[in-house]
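Changelog entry: the ABC transporter ATP-binding protein record was regenerated in this release. Current contents:
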Amino acid sequence: MLEVSGLSVSYSGIRALKDVSLTVGKGEIFALIGPNGAGKSTLLNTLSGMVQAQTGHARFDGVELIGRPAHRIARAGLIQVPEGRQVIAPLTVRENLELGRIAAGTRSGDRNALDRVHDLFPVLAERRTQLAGSLSGGQQQMLAIGRALMGAPRILLLDEPSLGLAPVIVREVFDALLRLNASGLTILLVEQNAKLALETAHHAAILEMGRVVMRGTAADLAHDPLVVDHYLGRT
Ligand code: ATP
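Regenerated C-alpha cells:
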C-alpha cells in the first residue's frame, strides 16, 4: 500500500534521512521506533508533503507522493496526526473536527465520519461546544486523531501519540487505534515508547541517525536481544 524507497532528506545540508526504504501493507499497523533525532518525524513529514525529499520515492497505492503538495496528499487519503496534537485552541471541539473535513477537501466524503469519531471518542461529543484549548492533554490527542479521521484517511500517520499522557490515557488512545485498525484502517505509527509500539504493531522498523537499522515483524523485533537491550530495557 505504501512503499518508501531510497528516501533521503537534508535540512540545510544536514542529512536527516539516508536511503530509507520500508513497506507498509494494507490493513496493518506499522511502527517506527528510534531515539530522539533519529528522523522519525522527518519521515512522516516527508510522506505527508510538509518536508521535501532530495531523493527517493514514496508510492501510495502506486501513486508517487514525493513532489506532491501536502493538500493533495491529504486528499489522496494519507492523513497525519502531528506531534504535539496541534489542535486549534480558540476553536471548539466541533470546529476543530470540521477543519479535518475541510482539509480533506471536496473528495466525495463520508457523511458518517462525525458519528464514527463520536462513537470512538464519546468525550468529543460531550464536549463539542467546549474550546479545544480547555481540554486535557489526552482529550486533545483524541481530538487530533478525530480531526484526522474526519478526512476519511486510507492511511493514518501518527507522530508520538503517547507523548506526555498518563498511562491510563495512553491505553485509551491505543485501544482506539486498535479498534480503528480492526475496522480496516492502515496505520503508520511513530512512537518512542518501543514496548507499547511493538505490542501494538504488526511490523516495525528501527530508525537510528536517519537510517533503517532493523525491520521485521513486531514480535520478532520484541524478542531480538539488541532491541531488548537498547529499547525495551528503558521503557
Ligand atoms: P524526536 O523524537 O525528537 O522528534 P525524530 O526521530 O522525530 O526525533 P526528527 O525530528 O525527524 O527526529 O529529526 C531528525 C534530525 O533532523 C535531527 O537531527 C533534527 O535536529 C533535525 N531536524 C529536524 N527538523 C529540522 C528542521 N526543521 N531544520 C533543521 N534540522 C531539523
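The beta strands are 2-11, 14-24, 29-33, 55-60, 63-64, 78-81, 155-159, 186-190, 203-208, 211-217.
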